[in-house]
Amino acid sequence: MICQFFILSSKGDHLIYKDFRGENSSDVVRVFYEKVTALPGDQPPVVMNHKDVYFVHVKQGGLFWVVTTNSASSPFTIIDFINKLCSLVKDYCGTLSERSVQLNFALIYELLDEVVDYGYIQTTSCDVLKNFIQTEAVSSRSFSLFDLSNVALFGAETQQSKVAPSSAATRPIHQREQGKSEIFVDVVERLTVVIGANGMLMKVDVEGEIRVKCYTPRCSEMRIGLNEEFSIGRSQLRGYGAGVRVDECSFHQNVKLDEFESNRILKLCPSQGEQTVMQYQLREELPCAAPFRLFPTVERDASGRLLMYLKLRCDLPPKIAAINVEASVHVPKGSVSLSQELSSPDQSAELKPQSRVVVWSIPKVNGGTQLSALFKVDVPGLCSSSLLEVAPVGLSFEVPKWTCSGLQVRFLRLSPVQPSPGERWVRYITHSDSYTIRI
Fold it and tell me: How far apart (Å, rounded) are the C-alpha atoms in residues 296 and 347?
């Protein structure tokens, strides 16, 4: 049972507040933010309590989505509800951001009135809610099919006129051209890797999913064709091309699998909004080289400063590039200042004394290239044992137009054929969930 729901910005600004039962005061908003900011680290516990009030929160889009409840409620049910509510707001508002919530606060309050009744969850289905929601969404960015400023985000190597702008897939579900069919398919993979100091892979975990977002004037059957060589488990690979194998695979309850075994085709009747039609997992080994390798050297110079020389090699294919790359290195306690020598001017570095981390930021790294950085950190009283405090390097990055598993969408068809030609877009994105390189 839900007592209150509110959305806070990362600075604690009050964006949305809804009290369903009147059992607690609105002061819980201040209490929650004080508890979150007082905790060390960037990932506070999902569930916290203050006296008899329990806070369950999820951070998405840089915002805190918080529910207060009593001790009799299941935290897993509440977490699942918050995640579904985030997806619902994203479907109706287009994006999850502070500006989007501010522009669409009336729509979000209308959604909350329909989704929750006196603290009890009613529905989070777009197909049900579309009959009751009357408020139109306000886009935080105007949409134009002629806006091609962000075309690199989408996958296929086609002529520029056939590439959708990045804002196309983030429009509200009600903002589409009348009678026009548009479908967006995302193949998203999250990569967890641990690389030992000797360069050997110690842990590998790839979690992927196929997400579909539809703007269709009527319900049609969708057919998604995957690699013919796609196999599940350690059975013999199929087909004659390069094999694509995963260890586990699960499907949305609405997906029909009568053609999956023979032709690797998923069939479903898509609903308005976004839904995950397939999830898969690959463990123990990568079918390709790890995206990044790091070659570190850590020592103490003659003046007593900590020297860290990092050489980062990108092993992606030459036509692929990683973006928003950040390398974080934990340094000894008491580090006070940083000087750096970076291999290109677009890079930057910052020392965060409170979290004892040096962050090396790189906007873009092309496949097959190598970058380097020399960091000189002033640490009063640095000794040989202090060098042991230099912790493993954590990498975060995104790789558009590439999947680690090699999973591809062969075709995307609607049945029956739509009277007007529809637009169908497929993009591939791999990003790091946890990428650790031991020194």
Answer: 18
